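hey can u check if this looks right to u? its 348 residues, i copy pasted from the old doc so theres a chance i mangled smth
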Amino acid sequence: MTQAPPRFGIWALVHGSRAARQDPEEPFDASWARNRALVLEAEALGFDSTLVAQHTFNPHNPENGQLEAWTGAAALAAITSRIEIIIAIKPLLYNPVVLAKMALQIEEISGGRSAINLVNAWNRAEMDKAGLPFPEHDARYALGEEWLSVVEPLLRGERVTHHGAHFQVQDAAIVPAAATRARPRIYIGGESEPARALAAAQGDVWFINGQPIDDVAALIADVAHRPRKADPLRYGLSAFVIARATEEEAFAAYGRLAALAELDKPILARQAVHTDPAVVMKQTMAKSPRLGTNGGTAAGLVGTYQQVADRIAAFHDAGIETFMLQFQPFEAEMRRFAAEVMPRVKRG
């Protein structure tokens, strides 16, 4: 497989800050207005992608707001011109036929720049509040696998009849189908055994949570050797970046956020009550101190501009193509990354 150059994306701020939620330099704001401005600026700065996470309720503090992923993504599709819009989806929340129709509509609005990111949910409270079942971990993946086996051919414009354990579909076809390519890209999240199997079988890109490069390389090696019928699987990595002119400045910025993150511990303790302990992401994140979500700074992108660029290059050599990045304060650090790190990565 010929590897593409590194691609850089941003996590949309659908539920506010990623590292510390009581930061005077980044007050809480998960509004449409902020996300609109953020994604438009990211596109102008040269970022390739944005990930719009899906939650009905703010998972960190239910008293705070939460941008709705699919309506928000449709609006982003209409106002952007180049950036890829990846929309997370939990199969527990959407019938596969309904979701396929929504996804193909956003594909049309965007002119062929949309993608779905299948995640099988970790927050029981979200389902409980909506009166929806929350099966155990492996059962959620079994449902997700069947769900995707219905959605994928529908995204291709195929006519589908399906009678399975979870879904009954009769003679369904979505019109119009994708006009510019076969279908939107499919990203798969999760690192458990069922998640790896699903990514190898049905995904286009496997998202790995931030962690040291040796661990990432081992994960890629495991999934790359699994049987696969489609084109070779590609890989993405989530990471929180703190880059400065000197190491001293970078670790001072890290220390500032770490001190602020201590204030969030009561909130995180309440959140933990609703987290499925079988979720591998949570187990991985508990191994070592880190800032940010989905592994955050565990990927090691903290240091000088050149150090961060070199570490990104090393991850790219290990197989990572898409880097889905977090910053704080987001806009200022996103600009810094675009000005100081992206050119160094491109120069090699």
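The first strand starts at residue 7 and ends at 11.
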